[in-house]
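can u pls check wat happens w/ zinc ion
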Amino acid sequence: MKLDPEIKLEIFEKVGIYSNRFSIPEPKVLLTTREVLDMPKEMTEGRRTSAYKYYGVSYLRQNLIFINIKKISDDKSLDNTIVHELIHMRFPYLSHGKRFNKLVRQGLRGKTFPPYKKRK
Ligand SMILES: [Zn+2]
């Protein structure tokens, strides 16, 4: 997809809506690899120069996500990528797999999740 002001606004709106539903603080959103490279190195450590390979990346500790618009071809993959990254933020210890995919599907369908509770 081409990054224009309209799509930018749409993405920020979607991130806001899904963040609310998942009861997470709204993350900062990066939309180009340039923006990823321009962030302080320690913030994007581990997924910096490799970010371009992915549809999206979440930097959990920084409350930051990268949505790789250039790689995304349609609205469906866009929504899927946004929800995928936000599910990482809401379920920080859950890795990819069946349960993860189920949560993504539920999120896309409009399910809400209560706030994440840290275990002490
Ligand atoms: Zn992931």
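Helices lie at 5-21, 33-38, 75-90, 98-108.
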